[in-house]
User: Fold this.
Amino acid sequence: MTERMDPSGHARRPGELAAIILDKVERDVVFTLRIRGESLDLLSRHFQGFIEHALGSNGVDYGDHPLLRLFVESHSRELTDFVVNGMALSHQIDLRAFERFGGDSTHLLRADIWDSLRSYIESAEHHFLSGLGGLHDILAEVAALRPGTAGGAQ
Assistant:
């Protein structure tokens, strides 16, 4: 059911709106997991190294294309965002559950987070290696600029 303006036609006061939202907190408010700081940097650098290794395995290095570093950095950010956003979406805790946490339940949550994080990282790597917009597109772009190939420099 949608909340309407008060009878005078004016928007609710901030305090009234806060009270209405707080009444719905059990179903509408969640705490989400967010990766940040050094861990976010580690994740991003992991994907950058992963992409560089995948390119190197295919005989490609930074001298092969003038925009290759930009490609690697942008794909690394995309993979990092995939993991960060996936973790935030899959680890939402409602207020009641959050209030119940205590003792050893945090260890169970830590194991669940580890498992999800590993799974998202593996999925991002797999997508980069096999999906559109990843390794195949970068290799095609590099090949197009190599001397002696169709479209490459003569």
Observations:
- The CA atoms of residues 2 and 20 lie 11 Å apart.
- The two ends are 67 Å apart (CA to CA).
